[in-house]
Amino acid sequence: MNQLVTKRNLIHLVILLIIAFVIGTYLIATTVLIAKDGIRYIELAQKFSTDPIGTIKHQLSFGYPFLIFIAHEFTSMFTKSSSPYIWICSAQAVSLLFRTLSLMPLYFIGKILVGARNSFYALLILVFLPYPARFGSDALRDWPYILFLATGFLLLLWGSKHGKWWAFGLVGLTAGIGHIIRPECAQLVIYGVLWLLIRLFLPSCNMTRPKLFCALFILAVGFVVPVAPYAKVRGSVLPVQLKHIMGFSRQLESRTLEKCEIDNTDRVHAALISPKKMVKGVSKLVQKTSDNLMYFFVPALLVGIYCRFRRQFAGVEAEKVFMPAFIVFNVVMLVLLYSNYGHISRRHALPLVVFTIFYVPLGLEAIAGWLVEMSSKGAGDQANTQKTKFWYSVLLVIGLVVCAPKLFKPIRAEKQGYRTVAVWLRENTNADDFIAVPDKRISFYAQRKGLVYGKKVSKQAKYIVVVVKNKDAWPDFGRDVREKYSLWVDKHRKGAKKLVIYELI
Prior knowledge:
This protein is α/β, with parallel strands linked by helices and about 500 residues long. About 65% of the residues lie in helices and about 5% in strands.
């Protein structure tokens, strides 16, 4: 694999790593509030030392909480504090570390697909995209997952291109370890099997049939080695969401058959995955993907994909299999997610953005060329080439400038009130007081026992935090209350939402 690395590659990587690290460190230092999911991961990490088996059996994959636990243990060597902020910083540091490391396999994926120059500019754009950057400085598992997904994908491309059958064993191993962080990493095995089956029926000179069978075998073995012990402890291989979808589908099929028998009709009504839901799912996926790309880079992405995959394909042979397979698999997976759960987030769309970002520079170059053609008819080839480079640079700079305001805005700055309320609770309540909260982050930052409430509030609660839109609204919790403190959720948007702390009497 040393042929992938040159002096220029190292310079590119150093630049990207430094920029990503500096931006990520700034975002961690200015974070107002971590994600809701981050609290769940941290609480699992806290339980790991006392109940490791219970943590592994939890419905959430334990890989990321385990990484947080390791980071916290390392941090504990330098401080004896048990503050939640140490856990929060440990979780964010893990995300930033893995995001930074992810740039290395991603860079070489891009080098194989579109060349070193385009790979560098693609990842420079990725580093500056606000939402992907925030995910990499938040207490979230997305970038640790992407590191393993990218590493396995690089091994797939490199092994397929050069006929290295043993590389598929590393693909399986990487997919297996990544599966423990996020189950979707198992998709690498699907792509590997797909490629090897194609080569079996359409032989290629770079890998004989015996080697193809060996590759299939060690791909499976590599995946099973880390997954088998994990699945044995958990008692399950499939993620909870997939089991729910499959179980619900079987119920739907049963109900559909009963309905057909009653109605004496051959029509099948797919209420679970209706065309309407699928269309909405695709629409929502397009929206979230566009959000990640700040909309500015969406045309460049579409043009770049078109230019790359038009009739006279100019890429490596494996790209024709792996990239369409990756896009189709992830789109279908996310549409099914929306059809069954009614939700797609920017985080869900992140892998699609990360692995297709390499086509954005191709699109920018094509758009720059069109601009030159429209404005410079009759000019020489050399002049047009220089103008194309100029317009390419202009488009790139404009895109980065568009990203800057949101990129450097502190994470969840609009929820500063949550942190302020947490400080008040920590300073004005007893350590053993139970706090009823609408969001677990409030009690976590306050270092108090939190009880998330719905319509009813637990009798154990001594204080309750309420989010109100009308400052004159008086809550009815079936108990007498006394207002203790209030403030705006976002001090820059007074009149929107207010946080009020009541003491329950």
